[in-house]
Fold these 2 entries.
Entry 1:
Amino acid sequence: MPAADPADAVFAALSDVTRRSLYSLLGEHGEATATDLARELPVTRQAVQKHLGTLAGAGLVATRRSGREVLYRPTPAPMSEALEWMAEVGARWDDRLAALERQLARGRSMSP
Amino acid sequence: MDHTVERELTVPEEVDEVWRSLAQPEWLGDDAAIELCEAGEVRAGERDGFVEEADAPRRLVFWWSAPGEDATRVEIDLDETEDGTCVRVTESRPLAILDGRDLAVEFGRASGDGMGPVALAGGARAGALR
């Protein structure tokens, strides 16, 4: 599960260059095993697995079992919190700036 | 990745007049207050905070938060244009993950991939909490 503030875990997870590479590799593959990913990076399979665990802990990666393999895939879910925040804050500023514009327009009509 | 929202409005009034209008808090919402001076109060409903910087009549920076939410930083810049004044608002949410300076440094080094501003956000937050 992501930490109390999902952004914390997300940014901490992505602060590491290997994990960023892993995350973008997963984006390209869609789904991959730790072995597949280790083949494309200069780190061991064990290291890849550990990094994937961190990404999963931040909610950036999800897993499923397929036969004797575990497949990892990127999940965009944690980022949606940031997008939601931006949409909400943006809408509030649209309202406030419209109100400021009306306020100025009222001043205009009152001045001689 | 960037927790920043930007909005712009151009009005025919001159910069001084727009600045004076900012001081009339109605535009901020119901039950609002705004003091255009350093450490002045800013409030809109249950959202409240304080002015970090007031450079009349060009620039206002304040921090505010609603209960249970992270504090955010709002910058309002007034620029003279041919048609009047451009009001530019930037609200940003400093990344709360920067609970250690080490991480900020690490992010800073990893610039070039859009992570650069993180260290700056950490600095701004530290400044506001001083």
Entry 2:
Amino acid sequence: MSATAKPIANTRSGTGIPTARLITWWVIASEIVIFGGLLASYIMHRIAHPEWAESASHTLTWAGALNTFVLLTSSLCAVLAHQAANAHDGPKAAKLLRLTSLGGLIFLCIKGYEWTLDIREGFVLSSGGFWSFYYTLAGLHGLHVLAGMIILLIVAAEAAKNRELQRVECIGLYWHFVDIVWIFLFPLLYIAR
Amino acid sequence: MSTEIQHAEPGIFRKYFFSTDHKMIAMQYLFTGMAMALIGGFFAYVFRMQLGFPNQNVPGYGIVTPGRYNALVTMHGSIMIFWVAMPVLIAAFGNFLIPLMVGCDDMAFPRINRLSYQIFLLSAIVLLASFLVKGGPFGGAWTAYPPLSASGAYNLTPIGATLWLLAVALEFVAFLLGGINFTVTTMNSRAPGMKMYDIPLVVWMIVLASIIFMASAGPLIAGAVMLLFDQTMSTGFYDPTRGGDPLLWQHLFWFFGHPEVYVVLLPAMGIVAEIVAVFARKKIFGYKTVLYTTWAVGFLSFVVWAHHQFVAGIDPRMANIFSVTTLLISVPITEMVFLYIATLYGGSIHLDTPMLWALGFIAEFMIGGVTGIFLGSSGTDIYLHDTYFVIAHFHYTFVPIAIIAVFAGLTFWYPKMFGRMLNETLGKIHFWGTVIPFNVIFIPLFITGTAGDQRRVYSYAQFAEQSRPALQHLRTTSTIALLVMLSFQFVFLFNFIWSLRNGKRAGLNPWRSATLEWTVPSPPPHGNFAEMPTVYRGPYEYGLPGLADDFLPQNVPD
Amino acid sequence: MTTEAHVQHPNYVKIWAILVALLVVSVVGSMSHVRAVLLIAAFGVAVVKAYLVAKNFMHVNVEKRWVPYLLIMCLLFIAILFAGVAPDVMKHSGLNWNKNLASQPAQSGARATTKNE
């Protein structure tokens, strides 16, 4: 593609926040309303249908808890990467970002196994109100995990060469947001009866 | 410490198809939007022919069957809102103007900008592809209420329904990306010296529109995923027999749908503000008030949505609340219109074509606004809902937004975009030939609507109590006026294309405007400014005493 | 590279340990049969965890003031959505109306409506 030089527009900072981080906050704001809309719809239906508690009791709490642990740990790696990037240590930041991405992969693998068990029991997307929401919510979240994993690796590749270190913090912010969404999905889908 | 962009002259592909330059991306959005407008306009021609001359062969189309009629009105609405109004008002004008007006060389993220157009183009292609599939394009109305939209057995366009949903979803992603880019650029990339209140109103409006879009589109994206699954994966999110609720879709849709109309209104009002100031040679009366009322409108727009659902069976106490908020929101909008009129008062008015369009916007939009009062009060809305009164009301708001304000902007910024002046005489002919027929199309529809004519019915011949043959002359008048209006658009197309090569050369600042985009060559080069400007004052310094000229540009030192 | 001086980085591992401890609390609490304990264990803990991540990992508290306000505004819009929609979707009956179909147990699998596409 054309010049890798950034436009002056990218380097200015009228707000005092670097443009990369500013756009990350706006992305997070837009994701809050997307997940919020879906979660609000789920909560309304769940309260309206107390009989869904029976379906909800079949979700595998151990898998959800383990996944929460995995995401929390990967968030730790992400923020340590940010600390390393702040200290201008690109290769260390890259290593930590790759660990974060690995955490995402483990998350998806556990989920894959968990869903296999669910499907074997006969619980699929069309199995009824609760399961439709369950798969849609967790699935949308999972897509965001997958996208995050890929971007983490791309940022890590540049960071390893000590380039574009400001992006380490930004992808970290996105990853923490994905973690926070899961922090709420876990009780909503796995614990609440 | 900043690097400047220097490239070798790019090849055709780089320059026209893979450009990251905001001005080229603006042109891509503009021409795609204009092309889609031809399609949406053609559909309006077809279904109005059916309504004016029922069950006759439509020249250039054929016979309009009931299913085809439904698809035509669905596609007309969807295309005009998502693929004409939004790309032209927000993406085209936003992309072209924002970097120039805030004084920088491009958007903060040019590659994301390019990606947003590519996704937008893909969305248009997906929509057009739905015209070719079995069953044809989606026929469940642009509002896509389930179960009609969820079940192919009901809407008879199962593949079209899913393609439509995917096209809308892609369009949303494109505008989320683009809008976030505009917001970040305006917040961060301004020229030194340009404070918050020195930003031209059109830029503010486009940014606020982007923010409103972002905040309201989220729940609908969630709802669209659920509808997609209902259509394709046998889920029952909106099926009451399976624990779902169709009313949920309605709420999610209108939670977005109402702010959406302000998303398109705000850029239109911004364009009109710029033009009024320049052609009245006067500062905007109450810039900060305009701004604060816009923020109020933006917030209020999120608490009025259920006025689209008064007859859907919502809780009547909610209907009370939404009636109040809906009537409330008319206040700040009216205030903004008054501020524009106050700007005109005492000004030195020049009735060039852009100014005619801007004044036309104010007059026609006001009619749209006052007719909305009858729909915002739940009592009268119970009678008027789903009649042609509603259609006439929203065309009296949408046509000023998507057509009148767009022509205002195009005739105003054409010299900057293309380096040539449009022909004034043709411009004036086009103006009168559009605005007068426009009124003749829709005033009869207020009358037929009040008499009880229902929307989305392809022919009243089948419904004895609906047929009201005495009113047929009004329906026919409306159709003929549409034909007249459409023919005058050829005047514009000719003017646009002819002036590209043969118009008078524009020079830097033919309208003698004070904002930054008029300080660069027409059209602006890559990188926009040979030397990045510094800003010393607000954008509307016109008519100041003691000056050599009657205006002072933003970048001229004191 | 980041352009502003950073506050002292807190001990991130310590924060992580607190988060994991809270996770254990919520799992243990979920096995309780007392409804209040269950809800606090589930959602109270979630709110605390989210706050800790936002504050310590995302540094929302040292960011410019308007950033958390923007994020809270987005949550507020969702709250408005919930308030406007819940009276219709969340209830099965009200003043003079009933949702008959919704009161029946939900059917699983294939649609209750006839013909399919």
